[in-house]
Amino acid sequence: MGERPVRERLCDFLEVDCGLSPDEAVAEAERCLQCKKPSCVKGCPVEIDIPAFIARIADRDFSAAARIIKDDNLLPAVCGRVCPQEVQCEGECILGVKDSPVRIGALERFAADYEREQGFVVPPLAGPTGKQVAIVGSGPAGLTAAAELARAGHSVTVFESLHEAGGVLMYGIPAFRLPKDVVQAEIDQLRKMGVEIRTNHLAGASVPVPELLAYDAVFIGTGAGLPFFMNIPGEQLNGVYSANEFLTRVNLMHAERFPEYDTPVRHAGRAVVVGGGNVAMDAARVARRLGARVTLVYRRREEDLPARRAEVVRAREEGVEFALCANPVRVLGTNFVTGVECVRMEMCEIDESGRPEPTPVGGSNFVIDADMVIQAIGQGPNPLLIRKLGGIRYGRKGNIVVDEEGRSSLDRVYAAGDVATGAATVILAMGGAKKAARAIDRMLRDDRKGH
Fold this sequence. Notes:
This protein is an alpha/beta fold. The protein is built from 18 helices and 18 strands. The N and C termini lie far apart (about 55 Å).
C-alpha cells in the first residue's frame, strides 16, 4: 500500500497507509493460486475463507468479498489494519516460498472499506432464543463474542467501564494506525444487530457481581489494562508514564488537543520510551507527533524486537532513535524527570523464548537526557473484577484460567482475550472469543432442549 510522506504525517494523527485502489486490489487478488488445501486459512485465528473472498475481489465483486469475510469476522476493517498477517495467514501463503505472499491483510482492509463506503448490510440473525448474555469489556474479545452471540439469536448486553466502546482499539492503538471512525463504524454495526452497549458501567462496582451472574451466561473480555513497571528508582517522578496511560490520554481523551479537551499530557522536548513491542512503537510515534525527540531503549538486539517490522521501519522513518542492547536502571530528577541512566547489555545464553538472555555489562552506565519517560514493558489483567468473582481460578499473573473453549471455573462464566492469555494480539483475542461464544451458544441451546 502507498503511505503518506513522513514530513506530512508527523504533523497529524491521520492514517499513514493509503490503502489499495480497486485496480491494485484486483491485480493483487489475481496473484492468489486458489490452493486446493489453503494453508492460509489454517493461519487465520478466526478461520476466514481467504481464497473465497480473494476470488470475489478478482472478479470485482467487492461486496460479496466483504460478506464472505464477515461470515467469520465482523471486524474486518480493524483486522485488515492491525493483524500481524506476516506471521499468520500471509506467513502460510505458498507464494511466500519463492516470492512475496499475497497481501491478504491489505485485501481484507480493501473489502471492508469498500463495504463501509457503500453502506453496511446487517448479517442475518437467528431467531430470538430468549437467552440473555452479559459481556464485560468492549475490546476485540468482547465485541467478537457479542457479534457471534447476537448472530446466534441471543440477547446481548455489553458493559464497558470507559465512556467509549472499543477497548484497546480506541484507547491503545493510535489513529494513524487505526482510525477511530473505522472502529466506531464496526461498533455501530453491532448495535444494528441488536447488541446493547452500556458505557460508563464498571463491572464489579456500578454493576454488582450478583447482577452479572443473574444473566444466563457471562463472557469476560476485559483485556490487559494493568501496566507493568520496572520498579527502578525515580519512577515516582513527574513525567513518568505507563504506555497505557500515555496512549489513553491521547487516543481516547484527545490530550493532544488540550485545552480544547480537558485531559492534559506532557509535551516533552526529549522522551525516552522503554520497550520493543508494538505498544512501545505506538508510544514513540505518538510522542514524536507531540513534538518530542524520542529515544527508544530496548535491552536486546534489533532482530529481537517483538514489534511488527513495518512499525519499526516507520518509527525510524519518523525520527525515533534506537538505543539497543541497553536497559534503564534509574530515572533521574528531583520533582521532574531530567534523564534516564541506562546500562549496556550483552547477549548470553538462549532463553525460553528462543532469544539470547541479556546481561548487564559492568561499568557501562550512561545517561540519556529526557523530560518524559514512557514504560511499555507489558501489561496484565486488571484484578478489580476478577478478585470479586469468588471461586474463579486465576493464574500467577492474574489471568483467568480457562479451558480450550473459554470456560472458567465458575459455572456459566467464560473468558477470552488478554484477560485469559495475558497481553497478545487483537486477532488472537478475537479467535479465543469466537471459540467461547460457540461454547456459550451450545450451552444455552442445551438449556432450551432440557426445558
